[in-house]
TrEMBL record:
This is Tagatose-6-phosphate kinase. GO terms for molecular function: 1-phosphofructokinase activity; ATP binding; tagatose-6-phosphate kinase activity. Its EC number is 2.7.1.144. Belongs to the carbohydrate kinase pfkB family. Belongs to the carbohydrate kinase PfkB family. LacC subfamily. GO terms for cellular component: cytosol.
Length: 308
């Protein structure tokens, strides 16, 4: 069984403004609301790709109700812990540039945090837990480390997609997959990742420190995969980019859906890139048909390990 865990979900509010003027009155041309937060995005794409899963985490208020209704509409099982305050609204402003404003999210009590850890402690051998997104400031900063310890104890495959301090803490833990983007990877090692060589070099370090599979996404420059003796690089297919919010989450879902269906890592990586790009090429997250039609346009090359 696959579980996703979103500590700080969001309603993603997309607003298009033709010429954004800072400090002025701006009127949007079109708007949309999507259930968001990294784990929830992974749940939605997994469902599209035929993998039933359960979404865990914290939700509250009218925004939390919206997310639950949307998940119900998509037939995604969920088991959230209710917060008193409302789930945040993250604004994604589309103008000549993409600007994101992600809120802090509601307060979470120690009791609520314990409740979630108890749910994670009940997962069974062979299950997958996708722990994705930022850790709210009101819970213990090492929440993902605690989750990783429970997963290791119960032989649950943990996937971590996070950034900043939470990513730093997960390094050194035995996890199934980590998927930083190249900015997050650079921040982690206090460097700048400019090319595939850099991505492989630092990806290797994550693998050596406990991550079985490592994917480094590089936006329009494609992605790199590192595990054992397998080093792969993929280019992105051609297409018109409409909205990259959720592309990274779609990659995680693409990889996991493919692995859970019994594919080899090469195919799972190709599916991951197809799913990431399929999301980038439309307003909402990708649909199964989009991923299927992009798959053959994603070229995956083996990289010679001796080069690194
Ligand atoms: N400009 C783009 N063109 C095509 N695909 C893209 C583009 N930007 C992102 N993607 C797809 O989405 C994946 C994840 O994007 P990235 O921005 O690196 O992740 P994140 O959303 O985690 O920051 C990429 O590997 C690629 O497959
Ligand atoms: O938990 P964080 O880091 O604030 O991120 C939450 C945001 O990330 C998203 O999950 C999108 O993530 P990606 O673009 O990295 O795939 C949005 O849905 C949400 O608004």
């Amino acid at each position: 069984m696959i579980y996703t865990c979103t500590l700080n979900p969001s309603v993603d509010y997309i607003i298009h403004v033709e010429q954004f003027s800072q400090g002025g009155l701006n009127r949007g041309t079109n708007t949309a609301y999507y259930p968001g937060g990294k784990g929830i995005n992974v749940s939605r794409v997994l469902q599209q790709l035929g993998q039933q899963n359960t979404a865990l985490g914290f939700l509250g208020g009218f925004t939390g109700d919206f997310i639950k209704k949307e998940l119900d509409k998509s037939h995604i099982t969920h088991d959230f812990i209710e917060t008193e305050g409302p789930t945040r609204v993250n604004m994604k402003l589309k103008s000549t540039e993409e600007t994101e404003i992600n809120g802090p999210g509601p307060a979470i009590s120690v009791k609520q945090e314990q409740e979630l850890l108890q749910k994670i402690a009940c997962l069974k051998e062979g299950d997958y837990l996708v722990a994705a997104g930022s850790v709210p400031s009101t819970i213990t900063p090492d929440f993902y480390v605690k989750a990783a310890a429970l997963c290791r104890k119960n032989r649950v495959n943990m996937i971590a997609d996070t950034s900043s301090q939470a990513l730093k803490q997960i390094v050194g833990q035995e996890v199934f997959l980590v998927k930083p983007n190249h900015h997050e990877l650079g921040e982690l090692f206090d460097t700048t990742i400019v090319n595939v060589e850099d991505a492989v070099h630092y990806g290797q370090k994550l693998h050596e420190q406990g991550a079985e599979h490592v994917i480094i996404s590089m936006g329009g420059q494609g992605a790199v995969y590192v595990s054992g003796d397998t080093y792969l690089q993929a280019d992105v297919p051609a297409g018109e980019v409409r909205n990259t919010v959720g592309s990274g989450d779609s990659m995680v879902a693409g990889f996991l859906a493919s692995i859970a269906a019994g594919s080899k890592p090469e195919i799972a990586f190709q599916t991951a890139v197809a799913a990431g790009s399929a999301t980038a090429f439309q307003d909402d997250l990708c649909k199964r048909a989009d991923v299927d039609s992009l798959l053959s346009h994603v070229t995956v090359h083996s990289l010679d390990k001796g080069r690194f």
